[in-house]
From TrEMBL:
Aminoacyl-tRNA synthetase class I anticodon-binding domain residues: 339-472
Subcellular compartments: Cytoplasm
EC supergroup of this enzyme: ligase
Species for this entry: Mesorhizobium abyssinicae
Function: Catalyzes the attachment of glutamate to tRNA(Glu) in a two-step reaction: glutamate is first activated by ATP to form Glu-AMP and then transferred to the acceptor end of tRNA(Glu).
This protein's name: Glutamate--tRNA ligase
Amino acid sequence: MSDKVVTRFAPSPTGYLHIGGARTALFNWLYAKHTGGTMLLRIEDTDRERSTEAATAAILDGLTWLGLSWDGEAVSQFERAPRHREVAEELVRLGKAYYSYETPAELEAMREAARAKGLPPRYNGQWRDRDPSEAPPGLKGAIRIKAPTEGETVVHDRVQGEVRFPNKDLDDFIILRSDGNPTYMHAVVVDDHDMGVTHIIRGDDHLTNAARQTVIYNAMGWDVPSMSHIPLIHGADGAKLSKRHGALGVEAYRSMGYLPEALLNYLARLGWSHGDDEIMSIKDMIGWFDIGDVNKGAARFDFAKLEALNGVHMRKMDDHALFDIFVATLPYLEGGSALAARLDDQKKAQLLAALPGLKERAKTLVELVDGAGFLFAERPLPVDEKAAALLSGEARAVLRGAHATLTAVSGDWTAATAEAAIRDFAQAGGHKLGAVAQPLRAALTGRSTSPGVFDVLAVLGREESLARIADQID
Ligand code: GLU
């Protein structure tokens, strides 16, 4: 066997790509990338009632948006049921598992009897050592693993440390149901083994499963993969992350205007750190990540921190790259579709030119939509309340002069030529620069905040700028 690391992400397709699932995928991906290994994707669709095609599509879409690529085709767990059956039957042949024949009512009575004696409600192993010839005729029976009854099962976990489970607490659990379908516990082991998974990285809600799964590995004589159970994400109040804390599905974070790289940076830092580094590129994360450095304690999701981090990533990003992501994300953003519909070549060029100024004032792509609104506004511009307050009678008189000055600008129309003209005008008239710039901004954008007013003049162009100013002085 080679030493190549093989990780996997194994979501159950019952809804969307959960934000916690995205972090699990990220840790698997980072570890694979860091070690030059591969990450596989397995869709755990064995539960036919809860699994949907739409949920699978949402998971693939979420991973793709985040850039968490998997190697090879996604594996369907359901389609591997014949193989799960084969291994369960082999375990029976090996004497490591056996058929049992209780009805649900009998099992309930068994649990009840145990409870009455103050014992944990476990299977009593009554078919464990019986001869198969005693099986009730015509019944198929469920296959149960012969779990060890003494000693302990130890999970060597790279995050949780050595976790010991007394074997007296593990009963002979079912690996194949009487209808021939594998249990989840069994399917996971067979799949991880067959897929050559060397490292299992998943939520710590699966830690007790790890003990039961170890029993199956041992029964088959298979190597137990390296295990890492990472703490779940909690809300700001310390309770397990739920809807009332905020969005759970990754697609909602796309709609809120977060950059994939920023979200990954934020998720990576939930429970993992590299010195004091807060801002990390994907390359940094790949270079620095090690599963052994993940904390044991639960991490708390802080929306304000995510937003601030997103703003930093937006400002750091190359303008063309940010432009491309912005345009690709527009259909998902609030107010974005209307803008996308009007994004012709001229508007694209204006947007790109305005981006350096716009991104200084935006923490999310949704705020960028808002900030870019002036580019797409139709004359006469709607003027918001704060902007209207900047357009008093006196201010309009100043605007009139500014309009005449700008009309007289000859040659190139750039931020520099516009600025020179306005500065001269302000000085000659004894106005403070702000007393000219503020009404100009209000007239040009309908807002009291915008990128630098000279950049706005340049981006809008001579004709549109003069027309917008004229709209406010007539
Ligand atoms: N399908 C399980 C889940 O979505 C993960 C199982 C595993 O990683 O072993 O929670």
